[in-house]
Amino acid sequence: MKLSDTKATLSFSNGSPNVDLPVYQGSVGPDVIDIRKLYAQTGMFTYDPGFMSTAACQSAITFIDGDKGELLYRGYPIEQLATQCDFMETCHLLLYGELPNAEGKQKFSRNVTMHTMVNEQMQFFLRGFRRDAHPMAIMTGLVGALSAFYHDSTDINNPEHREVAAIRLIAKMPTLVAMAYKYSAGQPYMYPQNDLSYAGNFMRMMFATPCEEYQPIEVLVRAMDRIFILHADHEQNASTSTVRLCGSSGTNPFAAIAAGVACLWGPAHGGANEACLNMLYDIQRQGGVDKIGEFIKQVKDKNSGVKLMGFGHRVYKNYDPRAKLMQETCKEVLDNLGLHNDPLFKLAMALEKIALEDEYFVSRKLYPNVDYYSGIVQRAIGIPVSLFTAIFALARTVGWIAQLNEMIGDPEYKIGRPRQLFTGSTKRDIVPISKR
Ligand code: SDX
User: Fold this and answer.
1) I want to staple 143 with a disulfide (CB 3.0 to 4.6 A). Which of 37, 100, 109, 258 is the partner?
2) Whole-model pTM above 0.70?
3) Residue 367, helix vs strand vs coil
4) Which helix (H) or strand (E) holds 84?
């Protein structure tokens, strides 16, 4: 980051001395006011619950321009990556900063492939869960449990350990997600096949059985790979910030990623894709397109607690570029499957059209986000609704790891330890229980 010629001066109406604060510039996007010395100089904290105006770190990985609806991974627009690259190239880009050449891609993909199996003991963790356990409950457990198997790559401050742990996590997430699915379906686990692509391997582990091979349909495998690319990273979102804060204590990468899985599960974050599809099912059950007006009325009634899931975003105040790409992927998959009249897709597009013309959404700059169409395309591929967020976690693992490694690799990093504005009881003495 570069020191700006501009200074920020804080002045106080009570005559306290002014405080000059340095301003720093990045390569693109908003400048930052450096307040690291503010408490020492003023005895005051800044106050920013939800981090509406706070840059918690500097990063060179992903840039979002929320007003333009622009998303860049290491400078490359998501539209180009989603149509000209695959997930393995995107993982290499996010982790190392550059797209690989053909040889580099082959080497990286092979390295990932050679780590796709999990320790045979992992299957016994699943037995502790009920068969109807939510896949994200299982994934939170399994990812944390990985740290029990890889003592040779848990020293987060060792660059070699960080590299091995990154490859292991990217490689094993599809295997674990497929195991969580097979466990819920009561089917035997399928082992990874080293001659398949990353997305093809995942879909075979999901849909093949010992009795019948899975015949991959190219358009579905490509759609799955694109879903992984679209979910791979997204700047300092809630789960990535969780991974950074968790990792800042020096804990091992598997534990830090497990914390990210747990955070992503929430319906305000990665859980929105599951919640969005269930919302569409509800509207369909109540009468479909004719019931959209009633539903929108509920959403606008604050007391209803109903939100239009898959809409709105803290950063995008324009159309989420991933939602556009997801909608195109939706069309491609449904057309290829002869489902171009899929009622749920038609309902989603009708609902989007109505919302985008409604003052409530327009005035609040609420647009579809990545979760709005992702459920429809995953459902068409044959993924059960309850697995959508686990697939989001699978794809986001590379982003979490890249961001964690960037933080740990920054010599300036410290353990994250925010403060508070205390509004509770001031000091008081205990009254003996006989007198309370
Ligand atoms: C992801 O951060 C990331 O980058 C996340 C993510 C990633 O890739 O990591 O992009 C993935 O999490 C996408 C978001 C998925 N979540 C949902 O789709 C759930 C529905 N969306 C909302 O819960 C909400 O939009 C958030 C949580 C996404 C953003 O919330 P903010 O930024 O805190 O905004 P807000 O809640 O303060 O909303 C501002 C106004 C409020 O109304 P007013 O108080 O001004 O009257 O907009 C309203 C909100 O009530 N609003 C909605 C709404 N989202 C915001 N009203 C109805 N439906 C919605 N979806």
Assistant:
1) 258
2) yes
3) coil
4) helix 78-84
